[in-house]
Amino acid sequence: QVQLVESGGGLVKTGDSLRLSCTASGYISRIGVMGWFRQAPGKEREFVATITWRGGLTSLADSVKGRFTISRDNAKNTVSLQMNSLTPDDTAVYYCTAGPYYRKYDYWGQGTQVTVSS
Fold first, then answer.
1. What is the pLDDT, as a whole number, of residue 14?
2. Which residue, of 3, 62, 67, 95, has the greatest Cβ tally within 10 A?
3. Are residues 69 and 17 in contact, defined by beta-carbon separation less than 8 angstroms?
């Protein structure tokens, strides 16, 4: 099993920045990709960003390109999401995820709330 623990959520204002982190533990060798999804109230969970564990290749949703950056620290088993120029549309619970390859997300964190006020 792989355990994922998120941190860094909170309440910010429009235009502010926030950095989320997710630390993995357990069978790290099972991880080929890590990333973030989010779910706003009344909406389905949606893809935000992913990064491959070895090559560091990234993929971001169109809605966050140019504002969000995903990175990883293999030594610390951590993936981070730097979120800039936040808007109320970014308000959601952000979930860390991990799996063996892209679109195969076997593990999920508990989620961290991000609220952006106008």
1. 98
2. 95
3. no
